[in-house]
Amino acid sequence: MKNFWRILAGIAILILLWQLAALGLNRSILIPAPSETLRLLFHNFTTPNMLLAAGQTAWKVLFALALAIFLGLPLGLLLGLSDAAYNLLRPLIMVVQAVPVISWLSLVIFTWGIGWRGPIFISFLSLFPVAVLTSVAGVHDLDKDLLEMARLYRVPWKKVVREIHLGSLPPFIAAILDVSIGQAWKVTLVSEYLCGGDGLGEAILTARMNVDIPSVWALTLGAVLLGLLSEALIKFVLRRFRHAWKRS
Amino acid sequence: METLLKSTNLCKSFDDLEVLRDINLAIAPGERVALLGPSGAGKTTLLKILAGLEQPTSGSVENHAQRTAFVFQEPRLIPWCSVKNNLLFVNPFGDYKEALRSVEMADFADYPPADLSGGMRQRVNLARALITQPDLLILDEAFHSLDLGVKMRLMESIHQRWKAKPFALLCVTHDPKEALYLADRIVLLSARPASVLLEKKEKAIQKREITSPDFLAREAELIQLLSNKAYLG
Description:
The structure holds two protein chains of two kinds.
Chain A lengths: L1 H24 L8 H11 L3 H34 L1 H16 L2 H12 L4 H24 L3 H9 L4 H9 L4 H26 L4 H10 L3 H35 L1
Chain B lengths: L4 E10 L2 E11 L4 E5 L6 H8 L7 E6 L4 E4 L11 H8 L5 H7 L15 H13 L5 E5 L7 H17 L3 E5 L3 H7 L2 E5 L6 E6 L11 H14 L2 H4 L1
Parallel strand pairs in B: 3-7, 3-8, 5-6, 6-7
Antiparallel strand pairs in B: 1-2, 1-4, 8-9
C-alpha cells in the first residue's frame, strides 16, 4: 500500500513538472498543458476511430509477440541442445538483433509498401532474437543432474525433451513476455508511424502533419497507458501462471 | 561365480588429481555389497563409473544388469512434475502406488517436490529407483537425510523386497549399522586415491535386529576397522 501511494506521488510530481514547463514556455504548440492533453486523451479514446486505431496497434503487438515466441522457442530449444547449430546460427541472430529498425523499415517499404505487414514484421524481428537467446539460456541453465538421471534410467530422448527441456521453458516464456511487451509496443508504434497504414502510430503521424501537437501528446500518452496496461495484465497473468507451474 | 557387475583395474583422475586407483570389484546377481570409505575418497565417482554415467581414465567396467537403478545423494526430482509423474517418468508402466507405499509416501503422489521436506524427497528418490524393478540397485548415501526410525523401516523394506526377489545391491555409506544391515559383503576403500583396502564377507544375518548382541559385535568390529590409520588416510 505504501508503494501505491509513492507511485501516485511520483505521477503527481511528474504532472506538476509538466504543468510548470507548459506555463513557463506558454506555447502549447511545443508543450501543451496536462489538462488540455488529458481532455484530448479522453476525447480521442472515446471516439470509434481512435478505439479502432488502438485495437489495430494492439493486435499487431500481440501477433508479433506470439509469432516471436512460437518461432523463437523451438529454435532456441534446438540451438540450446545442439552446439553445432548454435554456433552456425548465432551470427545470424546477432546480426538480426544488431540491425537498426530504420534499416528494416527501408526493406519493408520497398517490399510491401505501406500497410499492416511492415509493423508486424519489424516488431517480430526486434523480439525474435530475445525469444531465441532467452530459450537457449534456458536450455543451457537446465539442471544437468536431471539429464544424468534420465540417462541412467534410459528414458527415451523424446520423452526427455518433452518432460525436462520443454517442461523447464515456462519460466523463460514468462521472462520473454515480461521483457518484450514494452519493446513490442514501442517498435510497433514507430513502424506504424513510418510505414503502417493504420493504428495509433499512424494517428500520431497524421496529428503531426496537421501540426496538432496537443493531439500528438494525447495519443502518445494513450499509447503509453495502453502499453503499461498490457504489461500489467501480462504480469498479473504470469504471476498466476508461475504459481500454477510451481504447483504442477 | 557368475558376475553381474565387474570392474577391472579401474582408475580415474581429474587432471592431476588421482581419485581412484586400480579398483577391482565383482558383484554377483543378488549379492549385496556395502562400500565404506572416508569422505572425499571418490566413492560417488566410483558408483557413477560403475553405473556408466562417467568414463574411467583406464581400466574397464562390465555391467550385465538389465535395469540399473541409482539412488543419488540428492533427490534429482523434476521440480515441475508431481511425485507420481516423477516415478512414471522412469517407468511409465510401473506400479507407482506400490513403490510409494514401500517408502511410506503413498499419500503424497500428487504433491510437487517443492512441497516435500528433504527427507521425503529422498524417499521419492528411492521409490523412483524401486519402480524400475532393478536387478542392480545402487545407493549413494541414500538414507543420510532420514531420521533413524524412517531409515530403519526403509532398510527393512529393501531387505524384504530383496528376500522376495533378490537383486544385486551396491551401497555407499558412512554408517556401519547401515552397511551391516543392507550388505552381505563389506568393502573398505582407502582415502584418496581410493583403492580397495579390505573385503569382508559377512555371515548371513537372519534377523536384522540392530540391538542384538551379534549385530552389535559385528558393528564394533567394523568400527575398529574404520578407525584404522590406513582407512582414515
